[in-house]
Amino acid sequence: MRFQTKNVHFQHKMDSTEVSKTKPIFQTSAFSFENFDDMEGFFEGKKNYLYSRMGNPNTDDLGKGVADLEGAEAGVATSSGLSAILAGILSVAKAGDHVVATQDLYGGTYQLLARELPDLGISVSFVNFESREEIEEAITENTVLLYSESVTNPLLRVEDLTGMVKIAASQNLKTMVDNTFATPYLIRPHEASVDIVVHSATKYIGGHSDVTAGVVTGNFDLMTKAQGKVSNLGSNLGPMDGWLACRGLKTLSLRMQKQCDNAQELAKALKENDMIKSVHYPTAVSQHGNGAIVTVDFTDELSVHEFSKRLEWIKIVPTLAGLETSITYPAGTSHRSMPKEMREKLGVTDSMIRISVGIEDAEDIIAVFKKALS
Length: 374
Ligand SMILES: *Cc1c(COP(=O)(O)O)cnc(C)c1O
Hints:
- It is built from 14 helices and twelve strands.
- The longest helix has 20 residues, at 252-271.
- With 374 residues, it is an alpha/beta fold.
- Pyridoxal-5'-phosphate binds next to helix 4 and helix 5.
- Its cofactor is pyridoxal 5'-phosphate.
């Protein structure tokens, strides 16, 4: 099957004793059994489900659906993108281990890696992943993992996954990549031999801004470990949220295609506008397009605050990937806790906004921005 067919039919390959056209919601905390022998069947691997914290058909569907599109053996759904990242990291790292991560990380991921992992005994170094030397210099004898994002936030740097895997392979390290911004429709990091891929399914996987969820994918061995972490730490996803994210996932390729096409047109229109100093929009990301996020830096003549009052139906939202076009202010939200010098070193300026392009008609999106800029 090609991507779009596989995308819309991912649930049809699942076991189907059900007759409902859509997958029913197993809104239950546990599963019941005929007798104790029947219950023993779970521990013998004859039954899939016992207790929803340890697995539920709706959350498993999400893990399997994303794994399938990523080209991974297995996937585990979790309560959020951050808990997926934690489960992925803990499936390869323990106290005493060291992680080398890119410095231009999503803000929440930075907090998890910089503040929480050290308390668990896992140390992290943040370096510029554009420099092979910096990565290699940061690796110590305790290093177990290289961590990056396929497309970074908010400057949309596209990671050299092959280069990253090469360094890891030469030092016997695992690799992990956050593929939230790209989605498997654009980039499939496992094809470059990345070991673990994570998603904030809150974003494009769910796609409708109505659920907080995460997914981690990889080989059977790593995902068995990740599932163990999720069960033991209690960071499982609820059945209803799993079902909602699956409903969103079915239209991933349609949404992404439209959003990428719109973003390409918007980026072009903004590049031609005198009020804009620079437009960050990557090229050659994939055969389908270059993503649906456009980041712009305003000239000194324009106040971002003034601009934000003139956006008509475009909402100001500190997230991304919804069906509706929205904007956010990285310096005031995702990168707020970062010292100004560090922000500037990364290139995140105070005159920068990040646009998450939706599925509206491109002409209407462009018209609102043009009017607000004028
Ligand atoms: C939102 C986001 C996360 C965190 O996901 P949550 O679902 O909010 O926990 C991680 N990485 C990236 C790139 C994100 O955009």
